Amino acid sequence: MTKPKETDLYEPVKSHFESEGYRVYGEVKGCDLIAQMGKEMTAVELKLSVSLKLIFQAMERKKTAHYVYVAIPRPKNARNKHYKDSIQLLKALGIGLLTVALDSPIKRVNVVSFPTQNRPPNNHKTRAIKKEVEGRSADYNKGGVTKRKIITAYRERSIRIAVLLDKHGQMPLKAFVNDYGEDFSISSILQRNFYHWFVRIEKGVYDLSEEGREALSDPQFKELVTYYRGLV
Q1: Residue 164 neighbours by CB under 8 Å, 6+ apart
Q2: What does each of the 232 residues of the chain score in pLDDT, given as a tens digit?
Q3: What is the phi/psi pair of residue 231, to 5°?
Q4: Full-prediction pTM beyond 0.90?
Q5: 7-134 placed in CATH 3.40.1350
Q6: How far apart are CA 215 and CA 184, in angstroms?
Q7: DSSP of 70-106, one letter per residue?
């Protein structure tokens, strides 16, 4: 059996929350998984074991989410002292614990303990997470991933613009606004050009750069590019 990775936990935990009626997103502002239902937000940190680092991360999430869980692989021995002590510590801190049966063909998620409800302040961090989630059309990331480009709301909007330019060629900013509205901050993204995907032809007129064309061929963006090409 290959050594488990944090990303192996993501799909089972995501399915667990989706079955409860949540909308789930991976890698949101540093959090492995955000599950949202109405105005209620739940944060989940994925790790291979309970550690001090994990507890610190979970405590940080309590500042921005109503409920916080940590998710780890199901232990081989549930009577292990470290595991039992970890459960008690997490309960005392108001953090929930999920275990995932990675050692089974059916990677069942078990709720070992539920978290207590937090009342996170409506600060800039909380608002940033909400804005990020609202700006994504779907979940294109896998929580716990490293060395991979995260599809943030900003990157998704940039891809949407790149798809439009790829189809129509040079476009004046006015055409974007008239035909597609300003719901995804067109002017700001084109002018900032954070990824160098766009080139300014003349005042108010933009085209796709070579970097932009390469981005549309990036396998990591394939699902999202296909989605937006179906809309234009």
Answers
A1: 171, 176, 180, 228, 232
A2: 578 888 899 999 999 999 999 999 998 988 999 999 988 999 999 999 999 999 999 999 999 999 999 999 998 887 889 899 999 999 999 999 999 999 888 899 999 999 999 887 777 888 888 888 888 877 787 776 665 677 888 888 899 899 989 988 998 887 776 666 555 578 888 888 999 999 999 988 999 999 999 999 998 899 889 988 887 6
A3: -100, -15
A4: no
A5: yes
A6: 19
A7: EEEEPPS-TT-HHHHHHHHHHHHHT-EEEEE-TTSSS
DSSP β-ladder status, 31-37 and 40-46: antiparallel
Residue (of 95, 117, 116) closest to 39 by Cα position: 117
Query: DSSP letters of 10-44?
Result: HHHHHHHHHHTT-EEEEEETTEEEEEEETTEEEEE
- Token pair in block for residue 203: 């005042």
Helix H or strand E segment including 67: strand 67-73
Amino acid identity at 176: F
Tell me how far apart the alpha carbons of residues 178 and 202 are, in angstroms, rounded to a whole number. 19
Domain boundaries, the chain: 7-134, 153-229
By CB atoms closer than 10 A (0-12, 13-18, 19+), residue 168 is middle
Does domain 153-229 match CATH 3.30.70? no
- Dist. CA 157–CA 30, nearest whole Å: 19
Q: How far apart are CA 213 and CA 163, in angstroms?
A: 9
